From TrEMBL:
PANTHER family per UniProt: D-ALANYL-D-ALANINE CARBOXYPEPTIDASE, D-ALANYL-D-ALANINE-CARBOXYPEPTIDASE/ENDOPEPTIDASE AMPH
Top-level lineage group: Bacteria
Beta-lactamase-related domain span: 17-301
UniProt-recorded name of the protein: CubicO group peptidase (Beta-lactamase class C family)
Gene3D superfamilies for this protein: DD-peptidase/beta-lactamase superfamily (3.40.710.10)
InterPro entries the record matches: AmpC-like, Beta-lactam-related, Beta-lactam/transpept-like
């Protein structure tokens, strides 16, 4: 990584109240920067595991693209083909991955279960049984406009697991983590950094009923390897996930979960994630072979700027890539 690149990344390291890990690539050059403590008296490292929240959905999208490449499913398959649901022919796998399925943002019944742990672990008591009940109660919007849906991401994971005949966790390990040698990436809650919200420790994030939407943990070095695999576009699945599918306003599009923004001479493909105690960002530019992953064990707040600053750093890295 050039000096210019490192200068862009260094301001993201603010260990005053939390740990930060940054991993970036420009062409053949890469850098990993870490600051702060993952836990009291335990400095963060490039292998420290952070909760990545909705970045989980990008892994679920890669599983969808891989299943399509294997001939197990088709993008336009209805979810009802794989689950014991009656959502209708219009609720497809691709619709779930592009937030155009018509499903609500959250499952029916989740808010009632979440209230006792709203500021700490709101999904903890919403398990597989509650998820099944929510699917039976769901009313689908028929206009298929873009509406971000955690519910949809979770349903996509369930459908892919059913199509493959194995649990989501096993599918993720078999088809993504082991082939890419992602040793720090998985659903286990330990070991990992201690999360914080406004300086206060938070318990590990649990999503037993909505795993595929936001339960993943990963490290800076693993996310850089993951993004590099997408940059290299060696498989049909890697190409598929970054293919624009839904036009939004201006130069913005939705791919399979990933956001895509057209820039002069190149694209930026990106997504972010958050739990009560962590914030994460990942993005890449295929044309500039540039990638950036940022992680912190501080939860997102209304005034937080971590994601925006990370996006701006990616934009600068891509613009200055040789």
């Amino acid at each position: 990584m050039t000096t210019v690149g490192v200068d862009v990344l260094t301001p993201l390291l603010d260990p005053a109240t939390s740990a930060v890990a940054v991993a970036a690539r420009q062409g053949d050059h890469e850098v990993l920067l870490v600051a702060g403590d993952a836990a009291p008296g335990e400095p963060a490292t490039e292998g420290t595991r952070f909760e990545v929240g909705s970045l989980t959905k990008t892994f679920t999208a890669l599983l969808l693209a891989d299943a399509v490449a294997r001939g197990e499913v088709r993008h336009d398959d209805p979810v009802d083909r794989y689950l014991a649901t009656a959502l209708g022919e219009g609720v497809t796998l691709e619709g779930l991955a592009t937030h155009t399925s018509g499903l609500p943002r959250l499952p029916p019944g989740l808010l009632r279960a979440a209230v006792p742990a709203w500021r700490t672990n709101p999904y903890r008591d919403f398990g597989p049984e509650e998820m099944a009940a929510a699917l039976r109660r769901t009313r689908v919007r028929r206009d298929h406009r873009v509406r971000y849906s955690n519910f949809g991401g979770a349903v996509l994971g369930l459908a892919l697991a059913a199509a493959a005949g194995r649990p989501y966790e096993d599918l993720l390990a078999e088809r993504v983590c082991r082939p890419l040698d992602l040793r720090d990436t998985g659903l286990a809650t330990a070991p990992q950094a201690t999360g914080h919200l406004r300086g206060r420790p938070r318990p590990p994030w649990e999503m037993p009923g909505m795993t595929a939407a936001g339960a993943l943990r990963s490290s800076a070095r693993d996310l850089l390897a993951y993004l590099t695999a997408l940059l290299d576009r060696r498989t049909a699945a890697a190409v598929d996930v970054a293919t624009p599918r839904v036009a939004l306003s201006g130069t913005d599009h939705l791919c399979l979960v990933w956001n895509l923004r057209r820039r002069p001479g190149h694209d930026l493909v990106f997504h972010s994630g958050a739990t009560r105690g962590f914030t994460a960002f990942a993005g890449f530019s295929p044309q500039r072979r540039t990638a950036l992953a940022t992680l912190t064990n501080a939860g997102a707040t209304v005034r937080g700027t971590f994601v925006q600053r990370s996006y701006e750093a990616l934009r600068t890295l891509a613009a200055t890539a040789g």
